Amino acid sequence: GRLIYWIWIFDVEGGIGYVLNKDYWNQGLATEATKAVIALAFEQLGMNKLIAVHDQDNPASGRVMAKSGMKYSHEEPYAMLDLHEEGRMVTRVHYVLTKEEYLAEK
C-alpha cells in the first residue's frame, strides 16, 4: 500500500490540513476528501469553525479550499520561513468556514 492522501483536523481553533501524493493531483480527490472531513467536523464532531492556510505560491491548494466550500479570509505576508527553500519567506493565504455557512450551503 501507498499513502495517497493525508488529512487532519488540529487544535482548538479547528485548523484543517492536507497533503496529497503528487501522482494523484488534478483528479478531484483532495476536494472530495476535504468535503468529507468538513462534514465530519461540523456534523459529528460539533465544531463551529474551520481554518485552513496555504502558501501563496501553491494556488492549487487554495482552489481545493474554495471548491470545498471554504471562504477566502486574508493574506499573511512574511508569515514564516519556507521549510524547503532556504531564505524564502512564505505568504500564507487564509480560508475560513463556519458551521452556519456550511449548513446554509448544504
DSSP strand count: 5
- Which runs of at least 5 residues are low in confidence (pLDDT < 50)? none
Strand content: 35-45%
- Percent range of helical residues: 25-40%
Average pLDDT, all residues: 88
- Amino-to-carboxy terminus distance: 34 Å
Order of helices and strands: EEHEHEEH
Approximate shape: globular
Keywords for this entry:
106 residues; alpha+beta
What does this structure look like?
This protein has 106 residues and is an alpha+beta fold. Strands 3-5-4 form a 3-stranded antiparallel sheet. The mean pLDDT is 88. The chain starts with a strand and ends with a helix.
Give the topology, please.
Elements: E1 5-10, E2 15-20, H1 29-44, E3 49-55, H2 59-67, E4 71-81, E5 89-98, H3 99-105
Antiparallel strand pairs: 1-2, 3-5, 4-5
